[in-house]
Amino acid sequence: MSRYVHKSHNVSVLLYHIVCPTKYRRSVISPRVDEVLRSVCLEISKRYEIDFLEIGTDGDHVHFLIQSVPTMSPTRLVTLIKSLTAREVFAQVPEIKDWLWGGSFWSSGYFVNSVSRHGSEDTIRRYVREQGIEEEYNALHVGQLSLFSE
What we know:
- With 150 residues, the protein is α+β, with helices and mostly antiparallel strands.
- It has helices spanning 31-47, 74-92, 96-99, 121-129, and strands at residues 5-6, 11-12, 14-21, 50-57, 61-68, 111-115.
- The strands form 2 sheets. A 4-stranded antiparallel β-sheet has the order 4-5-3-6, covered by helices on one side. A two-stranded antiparallel ribbon has the order 1-2.
- A hairpin with a 3-residue loop joins β4 (50-57) and β5 (61-68).
- α1 packs across α2 (74-92).
- The longest helix is centred in the middle third of the chain and has 19 residues, at 74-92.
């Protein structure tokens, strides 16, 4: 279950759904690899400010539901998780190297999505809109901001 993380100057609830495919989308995730992934992720939790709320595996990819702090960008989270898990999988299950030539366990790509603890985009939009006094609310922008003028 996610929780509020209290730091000296902020409070946050940052949840991410990360999906990491194996190299060449090979189905190399076995019960032994599952156990290595689980144990490595528990060690990562102890060392870094990352909580693994759920980990799910399929033959060729892994789903992580994690909570972290604002100082950890999604890219840094993925890099950290992929590098440490790959190193340990190769060390503890060396036969995987026969299936994955080139020395990489994970593909270079990944999927990341922020997850809301309190609802959908519409719920948050409504919450922001309904803050304060209704007559004083001024919608500064609705929709996507563009970085470049057209």
